[in-house]
Design goal:
2 copies of one chain form a homodimer.
Chain A (H helix, E strand, L loop, with lengths): L3 H26 L2 E6 L6 H12 L5 E7 L4 H9 L2 E6 L8 H8 L9 E5 L16 E7 L6 H4 L1 H5 L3 E5 L11 H11 L4 E4 L8 H17 L2
Parallel strand pairs in A: 1-4, 1-5, 2-3, 2-4, 5-6, 6-7
Helix pairs in contact in A: 1-4, 2-3
């Protein structure tokens, strides 16, 4: 087993080099970019749909969707009004910088303000692969349960923003918010957090305002 | 990248050899065993808790819990009345046969009728690693959404039983059951399926009766 370790290290550092290239390319075109990560079914695609729908008049949006199979998510993003590209990993449990590099060539980046990359649904592996995006956003969801920070610490440690989705389900499932937040604050103190529901729209305004402010601040400091 | 492929093949076949050893060990002791796989938060631990609680007088149960960190799940299984062992993968996104081999040495197998192995919460990677258990059980959940078979085909293809959990949430989330079942039936025709709620108990009887029948049939044919 030890023989595999150097190979893993080589792949990771090649990945990091390409992630830097991706970042340069995004910065050259002035595209602010987010890497959305979550378990399967936490609501990444729904949050993208709602975000695209509500910001379509304000920002020029593009979405790159990573999935093992199908183009269902890219179709939903496109129907909502974004440019979209689907990556099929063909079995891989995460996106890597090489996949993003290929997908970026499919987009007219000069006509994009905000790019959202939707990673493969997985609370483990995507955290280990930098893509070159400006921020990572973790989407948690109420029915997943409050113990997830404790059980998937690598993911909770490595992100810059947390969205807690499906708060409309709080009356119907047991979820100890104080316990959840304690776990988050141990792993990632002061993490920028939004609680919302893509179904009812509750909490969406704060998320959208923050997102627009991030893009504006990025464009002003270029 | 191509240089890594032979290494991956070598690890997989070493894993399969150890999985065969694990199976032999379980069969020598007469232990029927299940590998529970699911996304994070689909309800693997809740199903184990309810199963242990209700079958404690009928079968001698043991649980091996795989998590990246913490012993929360093993504590829940033990509190419900099972012998339990926690495996911490320390970052790995799946259990493998070597981890199970080590965990089996911690259990008095001759005093166990049914062993449930709870894999790391992940709809991708665990499907690629045989452990040596007799059956794999996938736990899906209603709030995950109905598109999961289409997006995680490897997992849906590789299991012998499907439990659809959290049916008590059907009134509160959009879930197209016909679309879900069509996806399942394409990937895994005739898959043995239970729909239930660990919270309300609805559907638990059919699952428990099936489980007891499986253990009895296994013990009779040894």
């Amino acid at each position: 087993m030890t023989k595999t370790i150097p190979v893993v290290e080589k792949i990771l550092s090649a990945n990091d080099r390409i992630a830097l290239d991706n970042r340069q390319r995004l910065d050259d075109a002035g595209v602010f970019s987010l890497n959305f990560m979550a378990s399967p079914g936490a609501g990444k695609t729904s949050l993208i749909e709602q975000t695209v729908r509500r910001l379509a008049g304000t920002l020029r949006l593009a979405v790159i969707d990573g999935d093992i199979a199908t183009s269902l998510d890219a179709e939903r993003a496109e129907a909502a009004g974004a440019l979209s590209v689907q990556i099929n990993t063909g079995g891989d449990c995460h996106l890597d910088a090489i996949m993003l590099q290929a997908a970026l060539t499919q987009l007219p980046l000069d006509d994009v303000d905000l790019l959202i990359v939707e990673n493969v649904g997985n609370l483990v592996c995507p955290a280990s692969f930098q893509l070159g995006t400006h921020q990572s956003v973790l989407i948690a969801s109420i029915p997943e349960g409050a113990d997830k920070p404790y059980k998937y610490p690598g993911m909770y440690r490595g992100v810059q923003t947390l969205v807690v989705n499906k708060i409309d389900l709080l009356p119907f499932v047991p979820f100890d918010m104080a316990y959840f937040q304690r776990g988050v604050s141990i792993l990632n103190p002061g993490l920028n957090t939004f609680t919302l529901s893509c179904t009812t729209g509750e909490g969406m305004e704060a998320w959208l305002s923050w997102l627009v402010a991030q893009v504006e601040s990025y464009q002003h400091t270029r």
